[in-house]
Design brief:
Helix content is about 10%, strand content about 45%. The chain contains six helices and 32 strands. It has helices at about 20-35, 75-85, 95-110, 150-155, 170-180, 385-390, and strands at about 5, 60-65, 65-70, 90, 115-120, 125-135, 135-145, 185-190, 200-205, 210-220, 230-240, 245-250, 260-270, 275-285, 290, 295, 300-310, 315-330, 335, 340, 345-350, 350-360, 365-375, 400-410, 415-425, 435-440, 455, 460-465, 475-485, 500-515, 515-525, 545-555. A hairpin with a 7-residue loop joins strand 28 (about 460-465) and strand 29 (about 475-485). The longest helix is centred in the first third of the chain and has 17 residues, at about 95-110. It is elongated, with a radius of gyration of 33 Å. This is ShlB/FhaC/HecB family hemolysin secretion/activation protein.
Length: about 550
């Protein structure tokens, strides 16, 4: 696994200043012996067995304070806090060693791995002087870069500069951001320099062309909007030679192209110096369903902007916090392309705060996220009149919701793989359908004839999959169990019962070879929805099944 950067090997030829306190103590002891009266000695009789040598007791002295010289990135207050436990009247050489090690450990923890703490020669007194020695970067080399130029690679890790001492935590964040680029991976290695008090660095690059293009064909549609879905995607991951990324997707139905048009655009700009990423997105969709990397929970259009701030990696763990502002407009209900009388567009404009973490080890990969969203109530059609045109039970536009998910993947039975994933939502309010938790479809409980046939104000979803080893190169089979639960506030007992559920079992396959990929899943429902067919003709029923197929090619 790519860790982003490697620590330098132990420095040879660099020695911290030796403490002379022990020598001073021994000298003092020797001086005392030399000052004793000098009488002619009487040789004692030789003992039968010479006594074993006894180690001299460790000298004891008082430490009332520490004085730190050299560049100290911690500051006086933090350093005093770290060294406070070593202020004592019965200090020993071991106490000084512990104080030195503690200060250096905190420096390393804060990312200052090239700052070393030494105990220089000094007069014995109640204030002990510690010296911080800083090593700096000598030369920076680049290996493996053919597509990306030196300026691009160096901008990826701005913390790494000749003549400076980089903060390892900051550099780890910058490499974590860079390595989310699918077409460029970087790793920083450090080694001892030929120059005194310097470290040389090498940025190793694994790269691919920055542009992508793909086409996929699936049967993710429905009878009313056309069973097929044709999706075209395109993207570039190094706009302006600054790693800016743009992704675009367009989906339609060959069978009913006039009824299905889905457009998605996303933009991502890394801010390496700040340790974050700014993103923006736009979607326009006539139908519900996923397309490319985009998702539609209702006919209409959405626009959003977000900022993601990356936290310092810890081993294989990556985490970040996000704040986002979205503007979503859900089109008024239509029948035969005519607006239903009394129906209005509905808008939600939520602010979302989120936290995401992902951990990779040799044994497993897992992660989770949690988001808190609340509607600002601003903008046209973001009002009770518009909301109640969809559902008269709604009593506030200032809705709140907690959302999140988790996943875990690990090997089992040697070469098999099992995985579990889940999602959740909780809201104390009655929500418009586009903000509700949906169940059913390829990304949820597989086996329903349409995507997202059920939704509720709160819900849970879970899926367990077991995947075989490769039967032939690139081909794996799998089995799965999907299940979900929904809850509604102020239930009406018909279209919105107080609770509902779905569950399914099925089989599938995954095949990839070069630029081609095929996925297939067959799911069959084990339970029926509580919503009667007389109320919703698309209400999932026990025994319903669907075979999902997706063929894709990516250039």
């Amino acid at each position: 696994m790519n860790r982003g950067f490697e620590m330098p090997r132990p420095l040879s030829g660099r020695r911290r200043g030796r403490s002379l306190l022990a020598l001073w103590a021994l000298a003092a002891a020797g001086s005392a012996v030399a000052q004793a009266p000098a009488a002619p000695p009487t040789p004692p009789p030789a003992p039968a067995n010479p006594p074993m040598a006894v180690a001299a007791p460790s000298p004891v002295f008082t430490i009332r304070g520490f004085q730190i010289t050299g560049e100290n990135p911690l500051g006086e207050g933090e350093s005093a806090r770290v060294l406070a436990p070593y202020l004592r009247a019965n200090a020993t050489i071991e106490t000084l060693q512990q104080a030195t090690a503690s200060l250096e450990a905190v420096l390393r923890e804060r990312g200052f791995g090239l700052h070393k703490v030494a105990l220089p020669p000094q007069e014995l007194g109640e204030t002990v002087r510690l010296a911080i020695v800083k090593f700096t970067i000598g030369k920076v080399g680049i290996e493996g870069a053919q597509i990306y130029d030196e300026g691009n690679i160096r901008r990826t890790v701005p913390e790494l500069r000749e003549g400076d001492s980089p903060n390892f935590r900051t550099m780890a964040i910058q490499t974590a951001i860079a390595n989310e680029n699918p077409n460029k991976q970087v790793q920083v290695g450090l080694r001892e320099s030929e120059e005194a008090d310097k470290i040389d660095a090498t940025i190793t690059v694994k790269e691919a062309k920055p542009w992508t293009f793909g086409v996929s064909l699936s049967n993710a549609g429905s009878e009313s909007s056309g069973e097929d879905r044709l999706t075209v995607t395109a993207g570039h991951t190094n706009l302006f030679n600054r790693d800016h990324q743009i992704q675009a997707a367009y989906t339609t139905s060959i069978e009913k192209s006039d009824d299905v048009k889905q457009i998605g655009l996303s933009y991502r700009a890394p801010l390496y110096e700040l340790g974050g990423v700014v993103g923006a997105s736009y979607t326009r969709s006539d139908v519900i369903g996923n397309f490319g990397t985009f998702n539609s929970t209702g006919a209409g259009h959405t626009a959003g902007i977000n900022y993601t701030h990356y936290l310092a990696p810890e081993g294989g763990r990556r985490s970040y916090v996000t704040v986002a502002l979205d503007d979503k407009v859900f089109d008024a209900a239509r029948i035969n392309n005519l607006v239903v009388p009394g129906a209005l567009d509905r808008r939600s404009r939520p602010i979302t705060f989120g936290y995401t973490a992902r951990t990779e080890t040799d044994a497993a990969i897992w992660g989770y996220n949690a988001d808190l969203a609340f509607n600002t109530g601003s903008g046209d059609n973001n009002d009770l009149v518009s909301y109640r045109s969809e559902d008269p039970r709604i009593d506030t536009v200032h809705w709140k919701a907690v959302r999140g998910g988790a996943f875990y993947t690990a090997p089992v039975f040697q070469s098999w793989t099992w995985s579990v994933r889940g999602q959740y939502q909780f809201s104390p309010d009655v929500l418009i359908s586009g903000e509700q938790f949906g169940l059913g479809g390829l990304g949820s409980v597989r086996g329903t004839t349409i995507e997202r046939p059920l939704s509720g104000d709160k819900g849970l979803f879970g899926s367990v999959e077991l995947s075989t080893p490769e039967v032939v190169p690139g081909l794996r089979f799998l089995g799965f169990i999907d299940a979900g639960w929904l809850g509604n506030n102020d239930a009406n007992g018909t279209s919105k019962p107080s609770s509902d559920r779905l569950a399914s079992v099925g089989l599938g396959l995954r095949y990839a070879s070069g630029i081609f990929a095929v996925t297939a899943d067959y799911g069959r429902l084990l339970v029926s929805s509580k919503v009667p067919l007389t109320v919703n003709s698309s209400s999932p029923q026990k025994g319903d099944d669907k075979f999902y197929v997706n063929l894709s090619v990516r250039f």
